[in-house]
Write a structure and sequence with these properties.
By secondary structure, this protein is of the alpha+beta class. The protein contains five helices and twelve strands.
Length: about 270
């Protein structure tokens, strides 16, 4: 009997301790009741917007779509007040225009009224015909020579130089970008596109801007480090499904041929 009583007493003690713990400790901590909890970051939705924690500034409206994953937004704006600034050369999400990307690109300054017209020399009599773009362009004399055109439709180049891959190049092709209602805007976008064919880090300064028959012409300096090239684009409607583009660039190592820039610009014509 003494052993039985001792067992009952021990069981009662264990039960009392269990009841006390149940009273003192809750079965599961209540984090919400304990105080405010910061919401975890949420993945952006397909529209580019994300939930906003209570007390935070509201997110931009759906009209300011987020950049595509390949481009991170910068701290500036395009002037609309709600859109992040596109990065140079970035792919844009729906809602951005090509001109917004242009104006946000620090490599390409605004084309102001201070940029004047230039006097154009007489064009060459000999021409190269580009049936795909609908353009006839000057056939430049020596030291220029025609070479294989791909991926363009016509190409003329200056001789290669030792120690550099840069050399004068004059090409034509159907416009490789989306054309705009304004020929001037299209030429601006074309000039920005030509930076793909200059050294990394290149930037533009404008030298001349003027209308030409059925299009627009821009002449500009491309600066990269301690060197520069002179370049020009002519965008012209040659009666094809897309306007035609003539583009010439000459590095400072071949500056004697800078005079040909104006001859190219004055010599682009619609193929008759």
């Amino acid at each position: 009997m003494r052993v039985v009583y001792r067992g009952l007493a021990a069981a009662g003690a264990v039960a009392a301790v269990a009841v006390a713990l149940a009273v003192v400790l809750p079965a599961e901590p209540d984090e919400v009741a304990a105080g405010p909890v910061t919401a975890p970051p949420a993945a952006p939705s397909s529209s580019g917007s994300a939930p906003v924690p209570s007390g935070s500034a509201p997110a931009p409206s759906s009209s300011g779509a987020a950049l595509a994953p390949s481009a991170a937004p910068s701290s500036g704006s395009t002037g609309s007040g709600s859109r992040p600034t596109p990065s140079p050369g970035a792919s844009l999400a729906p809602g951005y225009t090509a001109m917004e990307a242009l104006y946000a690109d620090p490599r390409v300054p605004r084309l102001t009224r201070d940029v004047k017209r230039m006097s154009l020399p007489s064009p060459y009599k000999k021409v190269v015909k580009d049936a795909r773009s609908g353009l006839a362009v000057p056939r430049l004399g020596r030291p220029w020579k025609p070479v294989g055109a791909a991926p363009f439709t016509t190409r003329q180049v200056l001789p290669k130089q030792r120690g550099t891959r840069l050399r004068g190049t004059f090409v034509t092709c159907p416009l490789p970008i989306m054309h705009q209602k304004s020929a001037r805007d299209t030429a601006l976008l074309a000039a920005r596109w030509t930076l793909n064919h200059h050294p990394k880090g290149s930037r533009i300064t404008w030298l001349a801007s003027q209308p030409v028959k059925n299009g627009w012409m821009l002449v500009y300096r491309v600066i990269y480090g301690k060197h520069q090239s002179r370049a020009a684009v002519v965008v012209m409607d040659g009666g094809m499904s897309k306007p035609g583009l003539a583009f010439v660039t000459v590095p400072d190592s071949q500056r004697k041929q800078w005079r040909d820039i104006g001859r190219v610009a004055s010599g682009v014509r619609v193929l008759g």
